Amino acid sequence: MIDQEKIKKNAEIWNQIINTESNVEKLLxxxxxxxxxLEEIEKEYIGEFHVEDWEIxxxxxxxxxxxPSKIVGTNHPDYKDQYLNSVLENLKRFxxxxxGYLLNSRYYEDNRFRDTDRKKxxxxxxxxxxxxxxxxxxxxxxFLSKIIGLDRVFVNKVYVYDEDVQLKQAIIELKQIGFDYKxxxxxxxxxxxxIKILLHGDMGxxxxxxxxxxxxxxxSRWNEFxxxxxxxxxxxxxxxxxxxxxxxxAVHFHYLKLIExxxxxxxxx
Length: 269
Description:
Layout: H1 4-18, H2 23-29, H3 35-40, E1 45-48, E2 55-66, E3 71-74, E4 82-83, H4 84-90, H5 94-103, E5 122-126, E6 131-134, H6 139-147, E7 153-163, H7 165-176, E8 180-183, E9 188-191, E10 196-199, H8 203-215, H9 221-233, H10 236-239, H11 247-253, H12 255-268
Parallel strand pairs: 1-3, 3-6, 5-7
Antiparallel strand pairs: 1-4, 2-7, 5-6, 8-9, 9-10
């Protein structure tokens, strides 16, 4: 049996929503936020979700309650890198989102009240930060739950990331000695202004080996002279190391450029 009274009430709610101009006014109209909360969201920054090379996915947790207060970023280009009050102003389809909440607020906390045909809610969790990021669908629902201050929201799947501390340290050390890197399908490129070295293997291992070899490079003029002498009298002195898949061999092949880099970098420090 069709509940005409319910249909009428829902229509009245919808008309109130669409006839209220701003997103802020809509929230105030239905007593979903206080003026104090609106002041708070002016200071809550929404960053960008991205995974650093030293961050690795370690597990996936299904059906978990998450406090929206710990959601601090998103991969959505329209909502990242701005304060939460700006996100609120820019939220698209907000009429539908607030209407859905007013009709079925239990959707946010109980999976039984979610339509089977609706997209589920997913988040990424960086364990080393103890922070959550929106990594797919649900930006509007997550932001509404955060703005109105819900204590928790039911999330269907959480992708958990943690940091590889040793890899992170290797990257920091690499940059301290004046190099950058680029991770590709071919391997890891070690890059500076006039050096580009392709290394193969586990990224953490090859970076640590390169750093070790670089730090132990003999930059003396005598060693440079011997290297150049070897080039003069032995055609394979350098060339035979060009395609050997080994960090030490790569350092030998690029020796002259590397010692120039080390001398210049040491002078600048």
